[in-house]
From TrEMBL:
The keyword Signal applies. Pfam families: FAD_binding_3. It comes from the Bacteria. Keywords: Monooxygenase, Oxidoreductase, Signal. The keyword Signal applies. This is FAD-dependent monooxygenase.
Amino acid sequence: MSRRAVVIGAGLSGMLAAAVLSAAGADEVVVVDRDELPDGPEHRRGLPQGRHAHLLMAGGLTAMEELLEGAELRKRLLAAGAHEIPLNSGMVALTPEGWLRRWRRAGPSMLTCTRALLDWVVRQAVLERAPVQIRKAAVVGLTGSAGRVRGVRLAEPGGDTDLDADLVVDASGRGTRVVSWLDGIGVTGVREQAVDSGLVNASRLYRVPEGAEDFPLTIVQPNPYLARAGRSAMIMPVEGGRWLVSCGGTRGGEPPADPEGFLRYTLALPDPIVGRLISGAEPLGDVHLSRSTSNVRRYLEKLPAWPERFVVLGDALATFNPAYGHGMSVAAFGARVLSRELTRGGMTAPGLARRVVRGAARAAEPAWSMAVSQDLLYPEVRGGGRPSPADRLVSAYSRRMMRAATGSFTAASVIWDLMSLRTPPTRMFRPTAALAALAGPPLPPLTEPPLTEQEQALVRRLDRT
């Protein structure tokens, strides 16, 4: 008897889930998405953050390469124009505690490219390796009962149709309707939490100026400790000889959509380096805004009972403020949980769906805690309540660690590991890390960006302000 799996959503999480299901022995894997998927690395409507900066951290890339074994995903991305950025030396970052130094010692890397390129490369890798069918349709509900999901209901031109499945995976992202879908089969009482700093992202593409091909990724981070809106900007190299410049501002400090205002915003940051660089660069399009940035957690794993044969992964389970760059990695972690559980018992094993949802929730928890603990510090944040004494204690310790990282390789290594999602947050409390935080930075703070003489000359040449 053939077994069919249905995946809702053809984004990163959905395609990784489809690959896992195919490898686990599903005879038919159908991925349902309301968008007409592009034939190349192009933006599509179903990715509200698709035009803004995305960072693929080392932990997430490792998980993806495990799930797509043999696809050589890293090599594919680099061949398509992605950039590999060593955190220790390839990044210039102004943190709330000062400039991070650039070290010559080894450290983790991250990949940078447009989200459109990443999704396209992953989708091609999956479709080459697995007999996955992609179907354009909108899912309007689940079929089955509170005890077991039996498929999905699709809205199609000729009317609603039911698509039966032995396993359904919701990977539909930020726009998921999973709570109402569950309500439709009699599963109620889902607790949701939203923490919204009011962040608005504004992004624009530029042609990389001549001589700036190897200029480091440059970021001015927001400061949550000033009791005012957080403002930030980043220049990130992407494919096609382009810079993707993304600004972010929390409620009361939102970046504008007009080109002149966009430039003024970058120049008014605590350091104007981003504005100085782009003032002499050629823009390649309009400024694009997005307000779909809140942290949203659906505590599906807390329900007293969970329907068999229904799994929820990625942003449909937990959505993060994209400023922290963890969403794609967490999606890969969730797909890895699905792979592990399928290997143990197969897609029709009793309790599999609940185990996957619980495991994916645990995998998302560190990123959720990091994002929410920072967003709660901004004024006018909505949801989440006030930071508890424990939250404030952890925040104070984290701030001390960041201050030490401005002049300590040991402390900087801790920050890189946490950013990369290679280690759990407990990494910050290991003895060597704690000693580094308590000792503080052994080197004096930098008063200017840590640029080479050639990089400084480039900034001066591009500066039109």
